[in-house]
Amino acid sequence: MGVLRTNVPRLIDHNERRELLAEATWRVIVRDGVAGASVRTIAAEAGQSTGSLRHIFPTHAELLAFALKLVIERATARVAALPPRPTAVETVQEVAAELLPLDRDRRAEMEVYLALFTAANADPKLRVPRDEAHLRMREGARWMIAQLDNGADLAPGTDRELEAARLHALIDGLAAHLIYEGAAADPSWARRVLARHIGSLAG
Amino acid sequence: MGVLRTNVPRLIDHNERRELLAEATWRVIVRDGVAGASVRTIAAEAGQSTGSLRHIFPTHAELLAFALKLVIERATARVAALPPRPTAVETVQEVAAELLPLDRDRRAEMEVYLALFTAANADPKLRVPRDEAHLRMREGARWMIAQLDNGADLAPGTDRELEAARLHALIDGLAAHLIYEGAAADPSWARRVLARHIGSLAG
After folding, report:
1. CB of A85 within 8 A of CB of A94?
2. What is the phi/psi pair of residue A90, to 5°?
3. Is the complex ipTM higher than 0.90?
4. Are A153 and A202 a contacting pair, CB within 8 Å?
5. Are A170 and A191 in contact (CB under 8 A)?
6. Domains of chain B
7. Which residues form the HTH tetR-type domain (chains A, B) (predicted)?
8. B115 contacts in A (CB within 8 Å)?
9. Is B166 in CB contact (< 8 Å) with chain A?
10. Which residue, of A134, B104, B113, B115, has the fewest CB within 10 Å?
């Protein structure tokens, strides 16, 4: 057994390998776009054989879907780890800002998210993970509006579902514009837009 | 000359051919995504030879850039043709709605716009037309905020540039969500969000 073990490459944990491949996928998509994210390119980026990648993700769509799922999981974990804030308005502003590409990691995630969001229009196999991602964002927007509905921070009689749809569209639009402006641009204007928007909901 | 003419295929006007090719490009992108919009596929869709297409658009990026320019020109022409409205709020609501994919033609245009917007992140040659399109939309948002700044429809002391950025992000986010929801969904919620947003600017 001891002799055999030294001749056998270390078996990487299945989940660990999936995550390594997903990270390689992100790097390739950010660099080459979804069109350039072929199984071969991604395998080369991950330092693995194409066959090994196909063993983990039988189809290209499965690999892209997994990368998108990881983006959502990471964003959710970051929001859950935010320290408590003294007011609902500050809490909501911090949560909303966490969903914007305001630093390098969040930019990469958002570029993947936007690229896959668009790719799903043409590829039905990407629609289930895209739909899940969209729904999670909408639920986040509903949660933010509910936090503000405390008798002070949301105007009486507000249509909460309409406000959640408006906040969701605004966040996705701001995210797209920040990606558009590039990593070198100052993103602080988007925080000011969010603060103005959330502050205006009290009416 | 008369004999020659009957043997020579009718020479399509250069501009007419460019527009026919751009329309074929839109159909292919809407059907197959930007990744599927190869010169060969587009030539087949337009019923022309690949060589003929390369004569008009030497590079793929030039063809995509032209398709995007046409989208912007058409949207601009539609806005310019809108009938006059009695109030600034109604005018701005109609202009903003014209920029959303609320019917079949505008959906196709917006799918092209979003696909090329994303593709430009990976392809530098698409960035100049993308930047022009983004700037035109921002100028439209500035114009709308300026229309509302009439002493009644925009709160005193409003930061107009910040509000233009907010309206622009909201419109782009709503457009992406309408594309996401599909042609079969009722898009009237997006009009209600716009009405709520524009109405709220009076403070």
Report:
1. yes
2. -65, -40
3. no
4. yes
5. no
6. 2-200 (1.10.357.10)
7. 15-75
8. 118, 121
9. yes
10. B104
- Chain B hits for A197, Cβ within 8 Å: 166
Contacts of B166 in chain A (CB under 8 A): 170, 193, 196-197
B24 touches chain A (CB under 8 A): no
* A109–chain B Cβ distance below 8 A for any pair: no
Three-state SS sequence of chain B = CHHHHHHCCCCCCHHHHHHHHHHHHHHHHHHHCHHHCCHHHHHHHHCCCHHHHHHHCCCHHHHHHHHHHHHHHHHHHHHHCCCCCCCHHHHHHHHHHHCCCCCHHHHHHHHHHHHHHHHHHHCHHHHHHHHHHHHHHHHHHHHHHHHHCCCCCCCCCCCHHHHHHHHHHHHHHHHHHHHHHCCCCCCHHHHHHHHHHHHHCCC
Please tell me the distance from the alpha carbon of residue B184 to that of residue A198, in angstroms, as a whole number.
32
